[in-house]
Design goal:
- Helix 6 packs across helix 7.
- Strands 1-2-6-7 form a four-stranded antiparallel β-sheet.
- The relative contact order is 0.15.
- It contains seven helices and seven strands; from the N terminus they run βββββααββααααα.
- It has two domains: 78 residues, no CATH class; 84 residues, no CATH class.
- The protein has 192 residues and is an alpha+beta fold.
- The longest helix is centred in the last third of the chain and has 16 residues.
- Strand 1 and strand 2 form a beta hairpin.
Amino acid sequence: MNTLAGNAMTSNDATQPVGTALRIAPAFVATATGQFPGIETTIEAHYNPARGRYIPTTIVNRAISDDFDEDRLKRTATQAILQAAIPHCVSVLLDDTPGAEWTTIADLTATEGRIIPPWLAEAVVKRGVKDERWEVIEILYSSAALADSPPAQLIALELDIPERTAVDWIKKARAAGWLTGITSNIGRPVSG
């Protein structure tokens, strides 16, 4: 996972604000070698504000050994690579105290196995919690939408709520002014 300049991606490279709670890297280069034996796939993707997600602009498949499947070299499965790469490009500030540091979604999932810490997930599902809930919904929705994955499914999984509740909370968060400029083409349309 690298910047366009070839440096390893860090939370400092996430400079573009998205919504109210996230910063993302404007572009990235991801290389995967484990998808198919003997084949390396490199994807360059750029964030497109009009579409509200990362768009692959370059995809290169190349053989890296003599023993490779020629048919697999002709086909690329970019979705899995994008879904694995994007958490490294999205940073969140979970603590609003002075001097708090931005953390990539990948760092959160690597340390706790989840994007949202369990204590925060438990807190935002309680009755009466609104702005904190909408902020968490924005973080989760954005993380999924940027990767072109189903946001309602991720929210339901992370917060341990039914998917229909996740869809309802997405609508309410959008109506409350959250999720500005963030859209998803996956799953049923969420209006509001």
